[in-house]
Structure formats: structure tokens, C-alpha cells
Write a structure and sequence with these properties.
heterodimer, A: six-stranded mixed beta sheet, three-stranded antiparallel beta sheet, 9 strands, globular, B: seven-stranded mixed beta sheet, four-stranded antiparallel beta sheet, 11 strands
């Protein structure tokens, strides 16, 4: 079981929008609408930002949105803010019912 | 709201068994799946396995031969045992409630494998 593929790093300036991709296969990302995204700041536990592809938990800013096309899911952050800097991980349900994480993406706010 | 807290030894010797417990407070352990997830220093997240409150389990194929997850509903706790550990098992270990997503998470506990 290979990890889902994410870019190692992305960056953007305050106010801009960025998108982080998460690529899998038809046995995971493409086969189910069960992709979730997590934000992690250094030394902290991951925080759920998006679940079931495009749903936002209560309390998460509407600047965060999720989508999916084929075997690739995406997390978009609009109106980038300094506090958005951190690591982002995607996760997907799989055909073997064993959840899979992406390798993580480091977001730098310039 | 539901909170999770990991507990257990922070230092384990190579070839021995890593044992951790996750205590669920603010809600019942019943009706949900509960996962263990780990993160080696400076690396990404790896799902270890989950257990349903009834006792049904599912494990990461890469760790399946060494992992046992159990649940004690009377104590609102679930536990992880990872045997025959090596230095590659050094990581922050998290527990998390599992639906089709993971939330909430415990704060994590760093377990170091070293002689």
C-alpha cells in the first residue's frame, strides 16, 4: 500500500490562493468520496480541516475548501494568512478498508 | 466534547513490546471506530490500525504481523501493542476517533526505541 502522492511543498503570499493536490488510484481517492485533509503545526496534533471530500467541520474557516476529480483530490486555501503555514496531509478510505495518508505538504506563507 | 489521551512507557528497548493506552473522556467509546496513528520524527503520518467498540479490528498490512489493538469498554479505553520493535518504530503515537475521517486526536506521545 503506497502513500497518496502530495507535493512536498507549496508556497504563496498573504491574500493569495493555493491548491494542494492528493493523487491516488481508483481503489482509494477515485473510488470513494471519503477524502479528508489535516493541518499540522509543529509539535501539535493534526487538525481536521475537510472531510468527505468537501465538507468543513464546525469552526474551520470557509477559506478552506476541498474537491475531487478522478483519482486526485485537492485542498484550496483562499485569502492565505500567516497562520495557515504548516504541514497538510490528505487521507482516503480504500477498497481494503485500510485508511491511507498522503506524504504531506509543507505550506510556506511568504 | 470528546477528548483522547495517550499513556504508556516513553522508552522501549529493541525487540521488546511497545504498549500504549488511549483513554476517551467526554463521551462513550461505543458506536465508533478508534485508530492508532504514528508519525516518525520529521516524517509523515502512518495509520497503524483501528478497532470497533465491539472488538472488530483492521490493521495496516505493513504492520499487521506485529500489531494488536484491543478495547475495554468498561474503562472507555483502547490499547495498542506493537511487538519486536526496532529503532524504526520510534515515533509520536496518536489515537483518534475514526469515522471516514479522524477527529478528534489525542495530543500524541513520543515513544523512543533505544537500548
Amino acid at each position: 500500500q503506497s502513500a497518496l502522492t502530495q507535493p512536498a511543498s507549496v508556497s504563496g503570499s498573504p491574500g493569495q490562493s493555493i491548491t494542494i493536490s492528493c493523487t491516488g488510484t481508483s481503489s482509494d481517492v477515485g473510488g470513494y468520496n471519503y477524502v479528508s485533509w489535516y493541518q499540522q503545526h509543529p509539535g501539535k496534533d493534526p487538525k481536521l480541516m475537510i472531510y468527505d471530500v468537501n465538507k468543513r467541520p464546525s469552526g474551520v474557516s470557509n477559506r478552506f475548501s476541498g474537491s475531487k476529480s478522478g483519482n486526485t483530490a485537492s485542498l484550496t486555501i483562499s485569502g492565505l494568512q500567516a497562520e495557515d503555514e504548516g504541514d497538510y496531509y490528505c487521507s482516503s478510505h480504500t477498497s481494503s478498508s485500510t485508511p491511507l495518508f498522503g506524504g504531506g505538504t509543507k505550506l510556506t506563507v511568504l | 466534547q470528546v477528548q483522547l489521551q495517550e499513556s504508556g512507557p516513553r522508552l522501549v528497548k529493541p525487540s521488546e513490546t511497545l504498549s500504549l493506552t488511549c483513554t476517551v473522556s467526554g463521551g462513550s467509546i461505543n458506536r465508533y471506530y478508534w485508530s492508532w496513528i504514528r508519525q516518525p520524527p520529521g516524517k509523515g503520518l502512518e495509520w497503524i490500525g483501528y478497532i470497533y467498540y465491539s472488538g472488530n479490528t483492521n490493521y495496516n498490512p505493513s504492520l499487521k504481523s506485529r500489531v494488536t489493538i484491543s478495547v475495554d469498554t468498561s474503562k472507555n479505553q483502547f490499547s495498542l501493542k506493537l511487538n519486536s520493535v526496532t529503532t524504526a518504530d520510534t515515533a509520536v503515537y496518536y489515537c483518534a476517533r475514526t469515522i471516514t475521517w479522524f477527529d478528534p486526536w489525542g495530543q500524541g506521545t513520543l515513544v523512543t526505541v533505544s537500548s
